[in-house]
Structures are given as structure tokens and as C-alpha cells.
Amino acid sequence: MIRITFLMFLIGLIATPSVKAASSNYPLADADVDLSDKASLYRGAKTFMDSCASCHSAKMMRFGRIGEDLGLSEEQLAVLMPDELSKPGDVIETNMPADYAEETFGIAPPDLTLSARVHGADWMFTYLTTFYEDPDTLWGVNNAVFPLVSMPHVFAAEQGVKQPVYETEGEGEDAKRRLIGLESPERPGTLSEEEFEEKMRDLTAFMVYMSEPAALLRAHYGPYVLAFLFIFTLVMYLLKKEYWRDIKH
Ligand code: HEC
After folding, report:
1. N or C: which end of the chain has fewer CB within 10 A?
2. pLDDT tens digits, one per residue of 46-60
3. What whole-number distance in Å separates Cα of residue 96 and Cα of residue 105?
4. Lowest mean pLDDT among 20-24, 185-189, 204-208, 237-241
5. How far is Cα 179 from Cα 144, in angstroms, rounded to an integer?
6. Closest CA to ligand 1's atom 26
7. How far is residue 56's CA from residue 52's CA, in Å, rounded to a whole number?
8. Residue 139 and residue 189: Cα distance in Å, rounded?
9. Cα 42 from Cα 66, distance rounded (Å)
């Protein structure tokens, strides 16, 4: 038994994708997404198409599926699709050529279909809200949970660029600066902090849904299943009482 457990542990180690981005211990914010809020998911889908799909694909997601799951009209779905030639059967593709992307960013922007499942909702929300100013990097920004990320701060205009607060660890040549917090941007963005976080919450919700569309069904059926179990337990309890009533014990 122990050997089997150990074997499974080893397989787990090998099968777990190494997540470079997780190498930060910056505290994660609570994403607090609500998958039953379809208006929020739709807003998130729109943000994804407007601000992310220019660089990232999501090749396991079809527009038609989004339309069905979110109960969208044809017009609402058309708003999400790249152009009038798009069909519901199309997946989310980026039109940025991979070699151009690699040249520009040093790495091709990865497909994002499963990203929220790999990293978790809280990580995703924190990632999207913690780009900060760092003149030592390619784009002049860094990220609290993805150090030295090569993605630009796509919402710099909306959020502004947050300012880092560092703490120095060690002394002399070994001294290392560690990010311990972020302060408000010097020049505020076009959105208030609450508005921006709301927008990122919607976007995170869409990405969580996209990474596991079945979760939407679970959120939908969950309460019914619980209600059924409750009533079933009650019936069983009453039946038990009924059966045992005439038995002397
Ligand atoms: C201008 C191009 C560009 C745009 C626009 C862009 N990204 Fe990125 N993104 C990148 C690049 C390049 C990377 C790879 C970063 C690295 O590995 O250092 C990346 C990485 C990521 C990652 C980390 C993925 C992983 O698992 O390593 C996430 C998550 C992500 N982007 C989400 C988004 C979202 C959400 C949007 C829309 C708001 C977006 N990106 C818009 C270029 C872009």
C-alpha cells in the first residue's frame, strides 16, 4: 500500500506542470468571482476579446459554447466575435504570428484556455491587478506574482501604474530587494480602483469559466442537488421512525 502511494506521489510529481509564475510569495487577493452571474461573465468575455485576444489564443473555447452557456442572443454573441465572417464554431484565435510574438516578447504569449485552472482564480485576479512600475524591465513594468513577466501592462491607462514598496534583505553585495507592497499610481488611471477591480473580477470570472465550462453547470445544479439530499434524508428519517415504531427495544 505504501509503495503504491509512493508511486502515485512520484507520478504526481512528474505530471504536475511546473509553474514558473508561482515563484513569488506575494499575498493573493480574494478573487471572489460569482460564476452564476452571467452578466459578469459576459462583461469578462468582452474584456478578454478586446484586451487579451490580440496576443493570446484560447483554442479550446468556441464562441458557440459561450453563447449557449451564457444564454446570449445572436447580437450579443456577434459583439464578442472578431468580425462578420466569424462563425459560432470558431475557437478564440489570436492573429499575432507566433514568430513575431517571440521576437517582440522573447516568448510567445501562451494559450489561456486553461490558465485560470492552472493558477487558480485568486492568482489570476492578483496577477491582473498587480502590475507595477519597474524601469529595469523590458516594458518598464513588473508583476507582484509573476516576477519579470514579459507581458506589458495592458491596462496602464485604466488602472494607472502602481508604485512598488521594497524592503532590503541582507547587506552589502548580497543585499536583495523584496517587494512588500504596492502604492497607488502617481498618475491615476481612467477608472477608480473599485471600477478597475470590478472589471478584473469579471475578466477572472470569465477565465475561470473558460478553464472549466462544466463548473457553470455545477453552480447551477448545486442548490438543487443539496435540496434533494436534504429532502431525501428527511424522508429516510421519517421512514426509519415508522419502521421502528412497532419494534420493541
Ligand atoms: C501585448 C501582448 C499581450 C497582451 C495584450 C496580453 N498578454 Fe498576457 N502575456 C503576454 C506574454 C508575452 C506573456 C508571457 C509572459 C512570460 O512568460 O514572461 C503573457 C503571459 C500571460 C499570463 C501568464 C500565463 C502563464 O501561465 O504563464 C497570463 C495569465 C496572461 N498573460 C493573461 C493575459 C490577459 C488576461 C490578458 C488580457 C487582459 C493578456 N494577458 C493580454 C502578452 C500579452
Report:
1. C
2. 999 999 999 999 999
3. 12
4. 20-24
5. 7
6. 115
7. 6
8. 18
9. 9
Torsion sign, CA atoms 60, 64, 67, 71: negative
Q: Are 182 and 163 in contact (CB under 8 A)?
A: yes
* Beta carbons of 185 and 161 less than 8 angstroms apart: yes
Compute the average pLDDT of residues 194-205: 98
177 alpha carbon – ligand 1 mean position (Å): 25
Rounded to the nearest angstrom, the distance between the alpha carbon of 70 and the centre of ligand 1 is 25
Among 243, 220, 239, 179, CA closest to 26: 179
Separation of CA 98 and ligand 1 centre (Å): 13
Q: Of 232, 212, 33, 228, whose CA–CA distance to 113 is shortest?
A: 212
Ligand 1 and 236: CB distance under 6 A: no
pLDDT at 170 over 90: no
- Residue that has been written with the C-alpha cell 508511486 in this structure: 7
pLDDT tens digits, one per residue of 108-152: 999 999 999 999 999 999 999 999 999 999 899 999 999 999 999
d(CA 44, CA 38): 10
Question: Looking at residue 133, what is its pLDDT?
Answer: 98
Give the Å distances, CA to CA, from 159 to 190, 199, 207.
7, 10, 20
Name 80's Cβ contacts closer than 8 Å, sequence gap at least 6. 45, 46, 49, 63, 66, 72
Find out whether the beta carbon of 149 lies less than 6 Å from any atom of ligand 1.
yes
